[in-house]
Model the fold of this input.
Amino acid sequence: MKSALSWPQRVLLAGMVASLGAAPWPLQAQQPAVNPAPPPMPSIPPAAQPGAGLGSAAQPAPPSWAAGRPEAEEALKLAPVQPPPIATLADKLPVAKLKLPKNFNLEVYAAGLTNARSLRIGDRGTVFVSTRLLDRIYAITDKNGRKEVKTLLTGLYRPNGIALHNGTLYIAELSKISKIDNIEDQLDNPPAPTVIYDDLPKDEPHGWKFLTVGPDNKLYFNIGAPCNICMPSPAHAQIRRINLDGSGAEVVARGTRQIVGMDWHPVLKQLYFTENQRDWLSEDLPEDKLNRLTRPGKDNFGYPYCGGGNVLDPQFGWGHSCSEFTPPVARLGPHSAPLGMRFYTGTMFPREYHDAIFIARHGSWNRTKKFGGDIVVAKLNPDGTVKSVEPFITGFLENNSYIGRPVDLEIMKDGSMLISDDWNGAAYRLTYGPQRISMRH
Done:
């Protein structure tokens, strides 16, 4: 996508020089109902502010997302978009409004999944769905052709990240990772999760995780930057991996602001991931990214020095060059919020989509005219570089307002694809075939 630098970036780029080398990093120790409404976002009351008291004029601290916001009138109108408090009824879901390529069909797979986020599918076909704003994980089972949604687990905190491996469900909360063995044998009465790793920061901003199991049988997960733009501590802005029992923690990448989607190249066995870039620099810069990890322990993706792979940060970029850092394999547009991504490893879709990456762009809030809110497909060259990024499913954004927001994707055994939507609390099933009639609701 074409991007033009604004005058602050042009001024900064004129005087920058390079000097940061990459090296492996040691891991540093840290400081220690199915359809409910999400809890309100935490805030700091005036009385809790430093120096506040009876009659004090102290004002509440601004929320973390507002850090760096300019005083322009239009910028002051922008804020993160909060989803509806309950899931949309199945017959009100916007499936019929979405636009798909020819011969692709979309149907409602399950409704009533308030704040549906990450998707994973068990060996027996159980679909597990995480949440971020709620405390729960759902399970969708098929009983004689009828989908049943149940709340599998509650009492969790920001349980966005889930993974399945050899029948074990792994759960990444804000500051711990836990597991339940043989989960599909215990859907009706699951035990409490067993914590395997908790050496994690407890910051709320960008604290939620994405979780995946690599070809090396290790768990990989992100730790976001605890801010919009700041110098992160050695414990933040990174990807870590651990053994399946929680031991052997390592940092495999640094310089990542926030990641909410990862997957493994089916041939090259390299980790690809989406990354959300900073806010408030401008409406059009920097662009969010699709990255590839090729040098575990050495790759640094640039945060906070370089955004989008090509824009030096006005505050932290002095003395650096974007060429010092691992470049993205693709840019995904300004503030588009790319989240879940999956390589298509099924056989139902046409050959042109085999081993391509489907990416859910959740959609922007940090732009006057919203951008994203769609599914795009990145087609790759044999060496793993990106040949093109093309629209695939559009229509979640209507008249500058969201009617849905895609989050994650997962490939089913028959080659169809599931897509979660946290705006509507639903999961959709994407199929291909001219003979099929879409069951639209």
Remarks:
- The chain has two helices and 28 strands.
